[in-house]
Amino acid sequence: MSYVFPPAAQASVAVDGTDDRFPVRRIFCVGRNYAAHAREMGKDPERDPPFFFTKPADAVVESGETVAYPPETGNFHYEAELVVAIGKGGRNIAEKDSLSHVWGYAVGNDLTRRDLQLKAREQGRPWDWGKAFDSSAVIGSVFPVEKVGHPCKGSIRLTVNGEIRQDADLAELIWSVPEIISILSHSMTLAPGDLIMTGTPAGVGPLVPGDICVVEIEGLGTIETPIGPREA
């Protein structure tokens, strides 16, 4: 068998402390998983079942890479997030078994074309144009569970040009990591290489060309994203 053109390279992210790479299969994202963020988006933070959206694997950008201000938006936002890296697949995973499927954790930034997302929401349409565009998933080095355990509390903070914009604690997640994994696995089969971005705290806001956006999670280090000129 031969391909009609060369297949795309495997998307991957760094692994902390080694030259190894974590191959990325899919990126799942949890919507409105911090109560204060739900409120700032005009939604009730009650513990309704979580909902998910996705980003393509090749949307991954590593720390330090410049992200061009994307086209077709005038309201480009940051969102600091804890990222879960799945190392063992499965379906219908019990909550009590969920953490055994985790390979590691990383710091993430769910970049968002907010105006396009909100327009889609108002029209009852999918969020893809607001969430799943090129270079929209900044993911730091993955820290293996053997190094960091399973973070369920600790600071998650985002700054723009040194000014704090988001400042919360992982303990404020509405749906915990074990719950998220279990719920997602009852809808579709999880597989090694899947990443789950677990939601962002309150304080989301705009980025402009020239900004330096830094996300830090206690025990998982930092990621830094310079914002470049608008794409042509």
Automatic annotation (TrEMBL):
Q: Which Pfam families does the UniProt entry name for this protein?
A: FAA_hydrolase (PF01557)
Determine if Transcription regulation is one of this entry's keywords.
no
- Where in the numbering of this chain does the Fumarylacetoacetase-like C-terminal domain appear? 27-227
Indicate yes or no for the key word Metal-binding.
yes
Keywords, in A-Z order:
Hydrolase, Metal-binding, Pyruvate
> A Gene Ontology molecular-function term?
acetylpyruvate hydrolase activity
Q: Please give the superkingdom of this protein's source.
A: Bacteria
The name this protein goes by in its record: Fumarylpyruvate hydrolase
The protein's organism comes out as Pseudaminobacter salicylatoxidans
